Amino acid sequence: MHMFPSAIASSLSSLASTCLPHRGFSFESFNTCSRRSFSSLSSPPLDVESSSQSDPAAKDKMGSLPTVPPFKVFIAGTSYAGMSTALNLLDLSKGESPRLAHSPYEHHADFKNIPLDITIADERDGFFHLIGSPLAFADSAYAAKSWVKFQDIPSLQRPNVRFVQGSVSKVDPATKTATVLDHETKQPQDFSYDFFIGATGLRRAFPVVPQSLTRKQFLLEAEEQIHAVRNAPDGVIVVGGGAVGIEMAAELKLVEPSTKVTLVHSRNQLLSSEGLSDLCKDKALELTKEAGVEVLLNTRVKETRKIEPTANGRARYEVEFTNGDKLIASEVVMAISHQTPSTDFVPAAAKDEEGYVLIHPNLVFSSDIPNAEDHIAVGDIAKWPGIKRCGTAMHHGHVAAINIHQLMLVKLTNKEHKPKFYELGFVEPMIGLAVGKKAVASSSEGTTWGEDVMHSYFRDDLGFTICWNHMKLGKADN
């Protein structure tokens, strides 16, 4: 039985594959509302003195601009939000429009090219497509596709981008220093920065997300889980009727149609914790059953006991429910886990009681800490309403890159530049959920479902290709 207590940071914008693009889709408009504004009351005060850039816009005696030293940018976490921030910012630094933009970006006439020195720190050695986690733990070929080492991502192979595998243990806003515990040496290493971007996401337990830190370890971890659920003569029980549990149960049944799969949920509706329409929740149930998964609602697990194995030594478990019913299974998969922001390194003054980073609408830290205006939080760790989704995380990265670029211009011009910040707006509850061969999608515009919805939102790889292409991860720098 796999019920591991350990967890790993994931910039998980909901594993529930939530809200990927479809035909006519716009990440800008669909994933989260945003607006452009001049420096407003909701934006933080700017302090150019805190930057290593000291009035580089001052012209020399010949009237030409001096060489601008690179801004040091430190990004903690490189899933959807962190990756999007890095790549959009790199575009802007070369005088281009950010890759997620839907309209041309207006650059400063004197600073179309701004040198950057980017350090990326992540516990993993690569980009893991978290949306695909349910399928990665059911299909070996997909598992191999879902994890790409950073050195194999063409868009990141640049001389001014450095990757450090390790855990960020501390951030000191006063000295603008980030400390990373190296994955191999276990020794701390300090990195100074001009701008800090926190994108470390949420921590969740296995098998909601993999616990491995390297691709090699992950493939072994996935293979062990795949073997366990395939060799299940007494069937598999998936506990938890949220988006993750639904997708896990449906993907397992799709890959192993002969295996009995039972989804157990304690409430009277699937997706009960989400502010979605009853129609969406009803269709999720309908599609789950249609996929061949048995569903038990209003059923809460009381105890799981390991019982006598089969004749060939296969483990067996007895699951007892609070209503007195019992089920036997070869595997019990816990698809429920308490999610916590991976923000231990963030000063307590910058977080709420749950650990989420307090932000202005432009993603800048809103708390009263030193140099708050040079610290940005994106993705799941940011305290902002709405279902945690990969689309929102990528959009956060786009907005963060623009706003960091605007802050750089303020520093470069000694405050003469008036920043034009993008700000987040209200995010309505919405979801795109893969259920076997079909999907259900729901937003304020209504609920749709079917095989065409599956293709529009996920294609045939739970959105891997869509996300890869959207962020242009395969595009090498010129």
Automatic annotation (TrEMBL):
InterPro entries: FAD/NAD-bd_sf (IPR036188), FAD/NAD-binding_dom (IPR023753). It comes from the Eukaryota. One of its GO terms (cellular component) is cytoplasm. Residues 72-397 form the FAD/NAD(P)-binding domain. It holds the Pfam family Pyr_redox_2. Residues 39-63 are annotated as: Disordered. GO terms for molecular function: electron-transferring-flavoprotein dehydrogenase activity; flavin adenine dinucleotide binding. This is FAD/NAD(P)-binding domain-containing protein. It comes from Colletotrichum noveboracense.
